[in-house]
Write a structure and sequence with these properties.
The chain is α+β, with helices and mostly antiparallel strands and 744 residues long. The protein folds into four domains: 192 residues, no CATH class; 166 residues, no CATH class; 167 residues, no CATH class; 182 residues, no CATH class. It contains 22 helices and 21 strands.
């Protein structure tokens, strides 16, 4: 009997039944897909890091290394399980050619390495240790697609040529957000090519399980050990890898949560409409003595059937979509061997989504308990709720517009040259890096003198980075990478305070300030030439370079040895930029356009974010179409008597269609406007919360107003208009005499 009732109800309400299954399947698919991609990403990253035996702490150092002091420190530290020194031969990008493509415009520090002795291994595409033969080179996997490299191609280093034997996964430097890339060669070739670049040391430590990496880093810094370069920890490596490819997953999760909310609202409305239609039938059931629980069970069983159909459909959809979306992850990190765990996790996610919808249905059904038999049978049906479908149309279009706008705004922001100010980089047009030179100071001075004389240069600044020991107010000692120079010409984004303008002032990156427990007005001492020099914190700025832990001061004559120099330049409008760049690359600096620098650094992230924004639009548009068509059709059906009466009074079908068209279009338009406002305000806050954890504090969208004011509204209005016309098409079939015959 129950089965027959359910089946008859589904046949009579095919549209509402199909819409309910659609929303359940879509919600289940998006949350299951999020879990699948997240478990794949984190599992693959962790698997690669474990197979490669990534160090827990690594200090990069340019200069002489006292191995005896390091050995003594390692022996005296109970946290140390193992340690080693790896060499990295930093090459001049202008002398590198890969598969016929010059790396002169590369923003990465490219260099040669040999295989790690005991850990920090470079792995092949199957996750195995590589054996490199003389004359061969293995290329970072990130460069395979970027430069169209294939095995058998050549890599030229000055006058010497190596054959590309394959590709490597470097657990430390896989991400384009890592500023260095290692090419793997054999020890003999490394020795032959040693005169082609400047050698840098990677001082690496494996720590015992449970060791505090931050405490170990503080201990290392306090011993005065080699630290002429940035320090990197295992959590930071994991974060950089996850950030590059996790942005797409984050967007899909956001889409999934909004779609789940839309699904709950829509199904709630569908159920409320059906209960209003079935008011007399419910009253008759109660009059026959059927209990409240039994009546709820009849209706709830139908939704359980919908859930049984929608959940597997969602899981199948998620499994299909996972393949193309996870391709980038597998290429960079390999496949995660996690057994059935991802499948179980995705099933639980899908069941959770559908379970929330069913809880909403159960809560709505309890309203029937308060309906008495007399009210159900004899009281007129509720009126005054005619605005509910239109409110729902507005809410759904607002949510879908929000979904389309936020990923697009985030993509446009990260790809904009203006975003460099959140990266801790000055906002000039061009960036000149002087690294790994025998005389960095001398080369920098020569370039600065040339810029001073250059009539094509509008303005420039020289910033030099050195490593200092800092003594905090509580007496703790830590290492700081400090950038010296004039920070007023091309300022970065400051959250509080202002750039250092004079002696005794220091600005800290937001992550550094949080780690050190310092704020504007606090003080610390920098050790310069053996003496403690007091500094006051004048500002806190956003930075995600070098792990997001940097500092800035004005230039000083007693500064520490320079690790690297950066010059920012803006040219006059009449300057020939391409020719200018070509000429200045001959000075020994790596010259890059800031826009290209951002694109290069975020290449992986932008590719994934662009894919996610298209997926969000691809989901939002059919949701708008389904919701508007469904609710306009239901509205027409609910108002069948009124429409028939209007026709009997002389109104034509076209006039009534126009009226209902504008009734549907106005809330849709209002929803799009609300979605644009929320996407720019609330979306900015959501993205800012996430990016703040990586050091990009004080985040603001860089908005493409043409896309916001024209592109997004067009994408949302297009399916809305078509759906409204389809939804009101039934007005034509309603006859004028129906209001007199009771057919309504």
């Amino acid at each position: 009997m129950l089965k027959r009732l359910i089946w008859n109800d589904i046949r009579q309400n095919k549209l509402m039944s199909a819409a309910t299954i659609f929303f359940m399947a879509l919600s289940a698919a998006l949350l299951a897909l999020t879990v699948l991609l997240c478990t794949n990403l984190l599992g693959a990253i962790d698997g690669l890091m474990d197979n490669a035996r990534v160090p827990d702490f690594m200090q990069m150092h340019a200069g002489e290394v006292d191995e005896r002091a390091l050995a003594g420190f390692a022996a005296g530290s109970p946290e140390v399980e193992d340690w080693q020194i790896c060499r990295f031969l930093n090459l001049d990008n202008g002398r590198l050619t890969l598969s016929g493509h010059s790396l002169a415009d590369s923003t990465q520090d490219n260099g040669l390495s040999v295989q790690g002795e005991r850990f920090d291994f470079l792995l092949d595409m199957d996750g195995r240790l590589l054996e490199v033969f003389p004359g061969e080179v293995y290329v970072p996997i990130a460069y395979r697609a970027r430069y169209g490299v294939s095995p058998g191609d050549t890599m030229e280093i000055g006058e010497r040529t190596l054959t590309v034997a394959g590709f490597i996964r470097d657990a430390q430097m896989n991400s384009m957000m890592a500023s260095s890339k290692r090419f793997l060669v054999c020890a003999a070739d490394y020795a032959k090519l040693a005169d082609q670049g400047q050698e840098e040391y990677l001082i690496e430590f494996l720590l015992h399980d449970g060791a505090d990496t931050n405490a170990f880093q503080s201990d290392y810094d306090g011993r005065g050990l080699p630290s002429n370069g940035p320090a990197i920890t295992r959590p930071l490596i994991r974060m950089m890898n996850a950030l590059s490819d996790g942005t797409m997953i984050l967007v899909i999760f956001l889409v999934g949560m909004v779609v789940l909310l839309i699904s709950i609202l829509c199904i709630h409305f569908i159920l409320a409409l059906q209960m209003e239609r079935d008011r007399k039938e419910v009253g008759m059931l109660k009059a026959l003595g059927i209990g409240r629980r039994e009546i709820r069970r009849i209706y709830f069983s139908k939704y359980l059937l919908f859930a049984a159909c929608g959940t597997p459909m969602g899981l199948i959809t998620a499994a299909i979509l996972q393949e193309p979306l996870a391709g980038q992850l597998r290429k960079l990190y390999g496949s995660a061997d996690q057994g059935i765990s991802p499948g179980i996790a995705s099933l639980l996610a899908a069941l959770s989504a559908v379970g929330l919808i069913l809880l909403s249905v159960q809560k709505s059904l309890k309203k029937t308990d308060r309906l008495s038999v007399l009210d159900a049978l004899f009281q007129n049906q509720e009126r005054g709720k005619g605005s509910r479908p239109y409110l729902l149309i507005g809410a759904v279009t607002a949510a879908c517009t929000f979904l389309m706008l936020v990923p697009k705004n985030l993509y446009h922001t990260l790809s904009s040259p203006a975003f460099v100010t959140y990266m801790g980089i000055g906002g000039g047009e061009l960036r000149m890096d002087v690294r790994q030179r025998a005389d960095i100071d001398g080369v920098t001075a020569q370039i600065a003198a040339a810029l001073e004389r250059d009539a094509q240069v509008e303005k420039y600044t020289v910033l030099k980075t050195g490593s200092y020991s800092a003594v905090l107010p509580d007496g703790e000692t830590t290492g700081l990478l400090v950038e010296m120079g004039n920070h007023l010409i091309f300022p970065v984004s400051f959250l509080r305070g202002e750039p250092p303008a004079g002696d005794g002032e220091i600005a800290l990156s937001s992550l550094n300030a949080a780690d050190l427990g310092l704020s504007v007005g606090d003080s610390l001492d920098l050790t310069m030439e053996g003496e403690a020099v007091p500094y006051s914190v004048c500002g806190i700025y956003s930075d995600i370079t070098n792990g997001g832990r940097t500092a800035k001061i004005s230039d000083r004559p007693d500064a520490a040895p320079v690790i690297w120099s950066v010059l920012y330049v803006t040219l006059k409008e009449a300057a020939d930029r391409e020719e200018w760049i070509k000429q200045y690359r001959k000075t020994g600096a790596d010259v890059t356009d800031i826009a290209d620098y951002v694109q290069d650094t975020y290449a992986q992230t932008l590719a994934q974010l662009n894919l996610a924004s298209r997926a969000a639009a691809g989901i939002a548009m059919p949701v708008i179409a389904v919701v508007l068509m469904l609710f306009l059709r239901l509205t027409v059906e609910r108002n069948r008597y009124a429409i028939s009466l209007h026709k009997a009074l002389g109104f034509t079908g076209e006039e009534l269609k126009r009226a209902y068209f504008f009734k549907g279009l106005l809330p849709a338009g209002a929803g799009i406007l609300a979605g644009l406002i929320l996407g720019n305000l609330l979306g900015e806050s959501l993205c800012g919360i996430i990016l703040k954890s990586f050091g990009a504090d004080g985040f603001r969208f860089v908005i493409d107003w043409g896309w916001v004011l024209a592109g997004i509204p067009a994408l949302a209005l297009g399916p809305a208009v078509l759906a409204i016309w389809a939804g009101i098409a039934g007005i034509r079939q309603i006859k004028a005499f129906e209001c007199c015959t009771g057919k309504e």
